[in-house]
Amino acid sequence: MRKSFALHTEPHVADIGGTELEFQPEVMGDEFMDAYAELRDAQKAKGVDLDNLADADPKDVRRTARALRLFLARQMLEESADLFLRLNVVKDGETLQTFQDLDQAEEFAAQHEGVRVADELRLPTRVIVELLEWVVELYGGGNRPTTSSSASSTPSRQAGRRGTGVSPSRASTRTPGR
Hints:
This protein has about 180 residues and is an alpha+beta fold.
């Protein structure tokens, strides 16, 4: 008996509103799991419960979101990762400096009045979560890694509508032809 396995050779592409992010054709399992473990550890270290952000410190939420971006960027090709991780320190709509590291960006921002740190590729949180789910499906074997995650998506609704079927107890007991 012989079994052949295909390896992906072309990058996976996520098209987000016309911006294409290219992901590695294949990611080795240990590299993927190491990156996922770092993401989980970063989330736990900050104590951020993504299901209850009302009680979370905004700085901790930002750091957790950054850890998610770092995880995703590790699966990307270099050019896409650079764009995805790029942070701009902005004042009055003008970029003063660009960084890849959040600590460096915040340190620079602290030295200037009226500035803010912003992702160059601004994305809604739902898109980043969808990217995470897609990447886990691509490289994690179709299943999420076996870790607890408060960021798990809600289960899909069951197909069909409730109460539309005919139960055997309510089915007609007439004999055909009568």
